[in-house]
Amino acid sequence: MYPSCFNWAQISGTAFTRSAGAVCYRATAQTYRLGATGCRSDWSPPGWLLARDVLWLLAFCGFAINYSVRVNLNIAIVAMVKGSAPLDREAEDVGYCTQSGAVLQNTSDVSITSDQGSLWNVVTGANSTSFNTSLEIGSTNLQAHLDPDSTYALLQDGLFDWDEKQQGLVLGSFFWLHWSTQIPGGILARRFSPKLVFGLSNLGACLLAVLIPLAASVDYRALIAVRVFQGIVAGMAWPAMHCLIARWVPPNDRSKFVSAYLGSSMGAALTFLVSGLLIGWLGWPAVFYATALAAAVWFFAWWLLIFDHPHKHPRISTSELANLHASLGEDTAVNKPTTPWKHILTSPQVWLIVYTQWGGFWGLFTVLTQAPTYMRNIHGWGIGMVGLLTGLPHVCRTMFSLVVSSVGDCLLKRGLLSRTKLRKSAAVIYLLGQGALLVGVACSGCSGVAAAACITAAVAVSGAISTGPLAAIIDLSPSYCGILLALTNMICVTPGFISPIMVGHLTYQAQTPEQWRVVFLVVAALVSFSGLMYVLFSTAQQQPWDPPCGQPYAGAGGGVATERQPLQEDNAHKGCT
Predict the structure, then answer these.
(1) DSSP line for 114-160
(2) Is 535 exposed, middle or buried (0-12, 13-18, 19+ CB in 10 A)?
(3) Beta strands of 474-569 (E only): which ranges?
């Protein structure tokens, strides 16, 4: 029950804090906040649920949405493009390593006629029977001669006659200009609202997905145009989240919180899994419509429940606000100094992280983009299995990240490991471990089980990024972490469009294990060398050009003036046992 704003002076008690023009008084049993919107009672959440826990959950879902829009085309294109069905290979089966024999050895009495149908059928996702496809194999039942995967591939053969090079352009186009909005995104988040930048970036990119079926039916270049625009819009999301973390999360809790970024892997996993089912049920366009719907639901929750700063949160508990104030300091600056671009661009540690992330992203983007095509063309897996078994590694990556980050934060709080050693240890797991496992993929030959196991493990160990270089960006400069991440991502997106082009050229009209071995060995070398450089030369110490402790300055981190050690009460709440 809210007290009358006209009788606020009658509330007994003393003012205990002041923020953004609001004066809070502690009465007998409740705290009342008076401000421009009037008087109201502060609601305290359950003891196990902090406001920053809600932020973590919705950030996790937001990154899942962000990656869903990146990768949904990777599996949908398998159903969109001609040439993956058994009959197109005549004497071959679907995969290079599978033996053709039982399936359609004699095609002399097989006739297929197909009409792609109207534009409406393409846009609405009508299945292959809606495209007036007719199949006759003498008088014999088709199902008796084809296994389910082959039947599925046959009836769902793609509409678009794009070769490997054109497919590489389509898959890589998202990243062509993705870099261009990284730094603007960090600047906008710093100057205005990281909540708004992150939310609208995700929502806008996903809503553009509804145009993909129409664009693909026009020409592959029209599809490229849509994907380029999606990449531009989505590029602002990641730097904005680093700004929120610097405002909301104490230093010794950041490894665990940054694991929210691994929602990207969960998003990829669910996208691969659900897309395979949607393609089978409703046709490939349903993948893009589902992405847009999920983004709209997430944005509604994000807009209602997330706030740019703890002091602006209407439902944060008094104890949590006090703990955050004690560990992070207070945003007292009115004018924000100019970003020290000269120091940032000449900092060896900044460029070391950029290079490290570049190598790691090359490995992740290659596996993320090419795994469905590799498993389909080499090992002969159907779309359903491709969706399931390329989604599994990303689930493992998320779980691995949560474990490593929790252990890492506990080691920091107990003083058993310095922050620099923790970041380096995580990089060994993330980069050197991933490089070794990619060598395993290269050497797997025609063993689909071995390839799947190595891919799963390679993606899983990359979850240590949240405890390694990704968290180190905030360590180096809490005040400018958003801009540092923007600079890193601006350069690190280049593997996103270079890798598909490289793979397209290496495997052009040569879908063989030998050619794919070259692909994975090149990627393993790039990943491993970047990890070695980080282990040898990195540090997690705050850089001298970042505002020193105690200076009342709110930089790119969005209001982090000084970072102190988290209160013991706050550490105990997060758990370190």
Answers:
(1) -----HHHHHHT--GGGGT-EEEETTS-GGGTS-HHHHHHHHT--SB
(2) middle
(3) none
Which CATH number describes the domain made up of 51-82+159-304+340-574? 1.20.1250.20
pTM: 0.65
Residue 308 has φ and ψ, to the nearest 5°, of -70, -30
The full DSSP string for 474-536 is HHH-TTTHHHHHHHHHHHHTHHHHHHHHHHHHHTTT--SHHHHHHHHHHHHHHHHHHHHHHHH
Cα Dmax for the chain? 95
Please give the span between the terminal C-alpha atoms of the chain, in angstroms, as a whole number: 40
* Paired tokens of 304: 């209602």
The owner of tokens 């502060």 is 42
Closest CA relative to residue 327, chosen from 430, 257, 253: 253
CB 56 within 8 A of CB 305: no
Domain ranges within the chain, ordered by starting residue: 5-41, 51-82+159-304+340-574, 86-155
- Tokens, residue 221: 């270049």
Position 34, amino acid: L
Tens digit of each residue's pLDDT, the chain (577 residues) = 333 333 333 333 333 333 333 334 333 333 334 333 333 334 444 455 788 899 999 999 999 999 899 889 988 988 898 754 333 333 334 566 764 433 333 333 333 333 433 333 333 333 333 333 333 333 333 333 333 343 333 334 568 888 878 888 898 899 888 888 988 988 898 888 999 999 999 999 999 999 999 999 999 999 999 999 999 999 899 888 888 888 888 877 777 888 888 888 888 888 888 888 898 888 999 999 999 999 999 999 999 999 998 888 888 888 888 888 887 765 433 345 678 899 999 999 999 999 999 999 999 888 877 887 788 888 877 666 766 666 788 788 889 988 998 899 889 888 898 999 999 999 999 999 999 999 999 988 888 888 888 988 998 999 898 899 988 998 898 888 888 988 888 888 788 778 888 888 888 877 888 889 999 999 999 999 999 999 999 999 999 988 744 444 333 333 333 344 433 333 333 333 3
* CA separation for the pair 369, 512 (Å, rounded): 18
